[in-house]
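Exercise 3.2. Students should predict the tertiary structure of the chain below and write it as structure tokens, then compare their answer with the key that follows.

Predict this chain's 3D structure.
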Amino acid sequence: MNGIPNIAAKPSRPTPPPAAIALLQSSSLPMLVQKELERMILAGDLGVGAKLNEVALAERLGVSRGPVREAFRALEESGLVRQEKNRGVFVRQVSVEEADEIYEVRAIIDEWAGRRVAQTASAEQVKQLRAVVERMERAASKSDVDAYHVLNLEFHDRLIAYAGNAKLLATYRRLVNELKLYRRQTLAQPGALPLFTREHRDIVAKIAARNSAAAGKALRDHVMGSRERMHLSRSSARHGVVGAVRQSR
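Answer key:
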């Protein structure tokens, strides 16, 4: 099977998740490992700051160490892990100061993309953006943060892709990877999902109206609003810890 693990021949090894099996037909083994490790990091199975054990992960995924090593390199390039000389590979931990800087860069990128897409978007692209927002509304109505998080990422990725600048898209995706932890926290705040959904629908309306200045401003305000909510989330978490300590005394 050209290097793909023979699950049937090695029953002692854990069976890869269904999502990983689905990728076997279209991905190289290192890519498959990369996608699975990325999923585990973003799901919190591999926690922020955790050291990644090459041998243990290879055994867990039923592969040799080579594909895991290659996946580590790719994940470092995408901003999800860091390699420290003589220490190993760790899941990246983004400080709040760095997160602030990333949000500021994202605001610039999103504003430009909003202006560009409002000028160039096809009817089909606008339709696709609206379809994502409709799915976001359904997720919000069920308070399904996990589903909403995936759709939120899809919406913004589509929008940046529609701007038609491959270098910008690659830069944007790295920034998004670095911010994913904080973005999940902001989505979990009470009332956040309906508010974000209204903002997304407003962005699409301005793009559909070909109002480039308004679309750009709406996206910039959306990103900077997310940054403010990140700080609110952190503040609430700190106060919650202090309150719990006081109650325990």
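Discussion points: The chain is about 70% helix and 5% strand. The mean pLDDT is 82.
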